Amino acid sequence: MVRWVRLLALVLVVGVTLPVRTALADPGDGAPAGLERFYHQQLDWKPCDDTVLDQAGARCAGVVVPLDYAHPDGRTLTVGISRIAAADPARRRGIMLSNPGGPGGPGLRMLANFAAVFSPEVRAEYDLIGTDPRGIGRSERVDCALPLPTMLFAAGFDIFGYARDTTLAAALAASCQVDAEKARNISTRNTARDMDVIRGVLGQRTLNYFGVSYGTYLGSVYTQLFPGRTDRVVLDSAVDPDLGGFELFHAMGPVNEAGLDDWAMWAARHDADYHFGGTAAQVRVTVEDLIHRAAGHPLYADGYLIDEHTVPMMLLAMLSNPKLNADLAEALRAVADELAGLPIDMGRLKAKINGAVPLETSGMAAVLCGDKAAPRDPAWYLFNIESVRATEPVFGPFAQNITACAYWPDPPEPPTRVRNQATALILQATGDTRTAYPEGVAMHRDLPNSRLITLADTRVHGTFRNGLSPCVNDIVNMYFATGTLPAADLTCRPDPAWFPA
Description:
Blueprint: H1 2-13, E1 16-17, H2 36-39, E2 46-47, H3 51-55, E3 59-66, E4 76-84, E5 94-99, H4 110-114, H5 120-125, E6 126-131, H6 159-175, H7 180-184, H8 188-201, E7 207-212, H9 214-225, E8 230-236, H10 252-269, H11 271-274, H12 280-296, E9 299-301, E10 304-306, H13 311-318, H14 325-339, H15 346-356, H16 361-371, H17 378-388, H18 396-399, E11 425-429, H19 437-446, E12 451-455, H20 470-482, E13 484-485, E14 490-492
Parallel strand pairs: 5-6, 5-7, 7-8, 8-11, 11-12, 12-14
Antiparallel strand pairs: 1-13, 2-3, 3-4, 4-6, 9-10
């Protein structure tokens, strides 16, 4: 351990050091013409009425932004933000904005939850800013009339299952158009524009940023739309910026099949507890058989459906973190017991699944479908599903499935092509099941002034977390505290003690 700490210190000393910027009395907010009233508004800071935020000492406010930036004199939205003030006002150097991913993830609490991972130096220097992106949470959420728990399903095993998914996708898209003007203006580009209004309102020439998963895409789009307005940017579990909308899921098939194999090895070691099989191969057979059995005996209770369309999504929700190995095993054990005629606690099962992926269906649909036009022909998706069944039997029918985006109105803008010279620190785990490792490599390629930190031999989504890799955490905290990027890309390893037995 001492050896890699010394190596890290050496690499950072000879690395790239960025100039330290302090808060300026004249922020030079750079308000675009016609948007001055939004950039110059006064905020009314109040208690957040949220246990996590209130315990962290946060205050909350609403930032008014245009619904449609092409028509700033029209309707407006109020975006909810939280602020945890820098621990040492004398050392304060700026603001750190954030996004937890999704899309569809509320973010007011995000940096409060990360406060324990940041070093005292980082906490001293930054106001930590959480946001609920437009259309999500407290930011005048999009509410689709069809109350589906998710917009994502596995396609099932036959044309009848696929027909069900096409019908649900079309119905969800139609139900989201009750307020069509709002729905069509929920997009990554507009959320990035909201970020710049927040920067200006808070009186900063530049912003610092920490984004996870989809939040890395949002951060990269901001660097493209607002060159020169970012300082220190960390992108954890990065998305390929050339993907977007419905394409975000296509790479998830192979990496989740590999993740399932990894989890199966753990489950085999715990066969006495869960009875899925004594080898990884036996566990996989059990899981695939469970999905087939669920197709013949679907269960609907407490607003939740268990069938061949949803069991793969349960797996997807919990494969992203080895700490959830036991939760996944318990969820699958509950499904197996129900299929055997035993009673299950559906509320407890829902809590495990929803706790792993706390996303809002309506907001996710609006952002994904508002970012990039999707193919309209259902036959196109069906062909892709059938082409991967042999190699991706559990997750291919999800990754290639039709979604509401096939029935969504065309987006008002094209997606953003990210190619710029912004500096950034990119973190990527080799076994990430949500954003595959090559996606982080692609983000690094598109931001050539970035550095890529690889977390080796780890099935996890989100690498900056307590106890997982001191190597990763030290690099991130050093960068936020000093502006120093490593001189070259680095590979870190996880702490073996972090993983469940």
